[in-house]
């Protein structure tokens, strides 16, 4: 039968074996946990690379779309400018023809009226009185009346030179303006070209406003997409 001393020695040996077994088991658990941690870190890095690549691809596609849209806007702008120039040239040519015909008709009508008055009014005093009354009425012709009497394309020309247009006893302000246009074709072209330039600048300003509005809308869509990617990125275990 073992003595008390032997029993105590056996117990100590068993305790040492249990402690050694515990240490081995703990080391195995730590090794497994380290492997899991390395795997989680590797998966996190791979997920980050995937998200980064996806963001780069989306940004590249967005830049391509924006470039294509800008090119389309520029092409449309060039087309609008060419159409506006063509329309202005056509209007200017038509207006020249209309003015020439209007001047000729006005002069013919004036000559006819003068001859008719000479035939009807034999008394020179009555003829002078009638002439003065007609001239007085014509002198009262306002700017708005002149604008209504001329072609709409030449309203800007009249507005630019109306201070120089004076009536007389022989002609109204409309007749004076038509004669001025006939005698100053170069000035008329300059005024019409200046008006065309102002119209084109106004169209360009309106187009820039539309482009800025479009870019703001695209920026909002881009911000929403970035927010979705950020939300997906937050779900990755780091």
Mean model confidence by pLDDT: 77
Which bin fits the share of residues in helices? over 70%
Report on the biggest sheet.
none
Structural class: mainly alpha
Backbone CA Rg? 47 Å
Shape, please? rod-shaped
Q: Give the ordered list of helices and strands.
A: HHHHHH
Q: What's the N-to-C terminus distance?
A: 62 Å
Portion in beta strands: under 5%
Strand element count: 0
Put simply, the count of helices is 6
- Low confidence ranges: 122-133, 233-238
Key structural traits:
rod-shaped; 238 residues; 6 helices; mainly alpha; single chain
What does this structure look like?
By secondary structure, the chain is mostly helical. The protein contains six helices and no strands. α1 (4-120) crosses α5 (173-183) and α1 (4-120) runs antiparallel to α6 (185-234). It is rod-shaped and about 170 Å long.
Topology:
Elements: H1 4-120, H2 124-139, H3 143-149, H4 155-161, H5 173-183, H6 185-234
Helix pairs in contact: 1-5, 1-6
Could you give a short description of this structure?
With 238 residues, the protein is an all-alpha fold. It has 6 helices and no strands.
